[in-house]
Amino acid sequence: MKLKDKRAFVTGADSGIGQAIAEIFAQEGADVAIVYHTDRDGAEETRRRVEAAGRRALVMQGDVGDSDSVRRLFDDAVHALGGLDILVNNAGVGTGGASVDEIEDAELERVLRTDLMGPLFCCRAFVKLRKQAGGGGRIVTISSVAQHLPTPESAPYGMAKAGVGSLTRSLSREVADARINVNNIAPGLIETPMTQPRLDDPAKREQSFKTIPWHRAGQPREIARLALFLASDDGDYVTGQTWTIDGGLSMQWGGA
């Protein structure tokens, strides 16, 4: 088992990519703190999958965009699991349909606090914890190919994802001496509840697949397998990197 007796903290673990990561981590020997915002039923399904793999599951509700909530979540997870070895920043929200000159302050705040400040708050708490434990640990953040590509009518989302890429690079240098690996995964179109409406619409699905050389959406477990590599000893010599997994979408952009 690649994560035998490790303890992982996974945000947005109630569905999609986060749920897949929690499940595969448990199958590889990790106990999992399952953090969700609103989907309690989804979080309980993740608990079922983690426990089916024979590992401990802790379900916790919180808001990663609120620093007080993040402190409480980490305190509760450490108390229940005895510590944390892995952080997966997966929680995120999407936006769209508003140009920069039309975006409302509330929407801008919502996206940036969840998608950018949230990972920063969680990284801050995790790094403090790992330094107190003598170092070591893994941070994996799930961003998006939007950090590389233009995002018209969704600028705050692209801004947040680009910021996460910068955070990954900067933090990796800060914590290298403590032997904490920091990496980032930038998925393309993945079949999750967030993207399901687009995939269920035949015209939108066809339009999306035309821009993807692999002509399909990715599956959450494909992202989870990459997260497993980065969270395990297999990825020990990797830090400060963004791994794009998008079926070739970002290679096609501008040439289609």
Question: What does it look like?
Answer:
The longest helix is centred in the middle third of the chain and has 28 residues, at 105-132. The termini are far apart. Helix 1 (16-27) runs parallel beside helix 2 and helix 4 runs parallel beside helix 5 (155-174). This protein has a single domain, classed as Rossmann fold (3-Layer(aba) Sandwich). The protein has 256 residues and is of the alpha/beta class. Strand 5 (138-142), helix 5 (155-174) and strand 6 (181-187) form a beta-alpha-beta unit. The mean pLDDT is 95. The protein has helices at 16-27, 40-52, 67-81, 105-132, 155-174, 196-200, 202-210, 220-231, 249-252; strands spanning 7-11, 31-36, 57-61, 86-89, 138-142, 181-187, 242-245. The chain is built from 9 helices and 7 strands. The chain has a 7-stranded parallel sheet, with helices on both faces.
Secondary-structure map with pairings?
Layout (H helix, E strand, L loop, with lengths): L6 E5 L4 H12 L3 E6 L3 H13 L4 E5 L5 H15 L4 E4 L15 H28 L5 E5 L12 H20 L6 E7 L8 H5 L1 H9 L9 H12 L10 E4 L3 H4 L4
Parallel strand pairs: 1-2, 1-4, 2-3, 4-5, 5-6, 6-7
Helix pairs in contact: 1-2, 1-8, 3-4, 4-5
